[in-house]
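Fold this sequence, please.
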Amino acid sequence: MKKVLVFALVIACSMVVPAAPTIDCMGCHGSTAPKYPILGAKLGYEASVHSIGGNARYSNAGGCQRCHTNEGFIEYVIMGMDPVAYNDYASRTPVPFINYPSQPGCFTCHDPHSTGDMSLRTVKPVTLVDGTIYDGGKGNLCASCHQSRTNIAKVMPTMTAKSLNANWGAHHGPQADVIAGTGGYQFAGKKYTAHTMMVNDSCVTCHMGQPDGRYGFSPKVGGHSFNMAGNVHEAEVINMNACLSCHPDVKQVVGTPLYAIKGKSDYDQNGKIEPIQQEVQGLLNKFVNKAGNGYFQKLKPPMYTTGGKWAGPPADAPYKLEHFAALYNYKLVLEDKSLGVHNAIYEIELLYDSLQALDPKFNVSVRP
């Protein structure tokens, strides 16, 4: 009778516990045409900011761990990518430091020794801090970190100059918010353009697109470098392969790492219609510029020095809501780093409304 019970228990367990995945070691580690080009991916990754950014050590505590360290991100995925749960865990006493934290690497995004393949750890849609759902396919894994961590609508009512510092604002990688057309301070009475995702797998499609003849081209552009541009044979070159499906005639602005996608209007009001990235840069220059006459440089007291550095204004600076809102939108667009490529209309709307808030006489006739 005991033998029958044991046999039945074994059968029951075999029905509940999934079989371990078949792991094809040679698919990654084989020297002859492996299924997954691990060495080539590693070559590109070594040129990426994820690899050489050096952020793991100083971001080894609090909510920073979940994106700046390999170990923290894996823990975050295990927790179901719930920022509230993770922040609760990370704020415990004593602080849960990671011993010997490591930079994000291959096994941050992939778990081949558990899954048996090089699929991503997660492609779960991401809930941004303001409640917006970001669903960009494989790019969801990128968006889980590349997002603002500040809900400016909730922060603004209690803002004072005392809260400001050089790092205040949207977190340093708010690309998911910008792509989704959210995350900025939206002024009352203004309409903002909702964004439609036009690219399957969002970030992955563009930033990991392989340029023609990639390995002869440069492992520092495209692929696991995630870089859209880089120096190749002493010239700045842009990877445009992923752009061609929507912009078949796209070219590079000669001598710059910019796309020659012409703006629809003279948004920066310098007397000529330029490529959209130059138009957005022109608008950013109205806030802070090398000449030292940007709006934030002329404030009393100034937020930025004439040289363009954060001025560290006093805690009792008499700034108003429009100053904080404009600063936040300026930093959101600045930290996005795409100069409009990710969502030009939304960024221009935010910058125009911020400039008008700082200067009611600012011409907004060509606001999108």
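The first strand starts at residue 126 and ends at 127. The longest helix spans residues 321-336.
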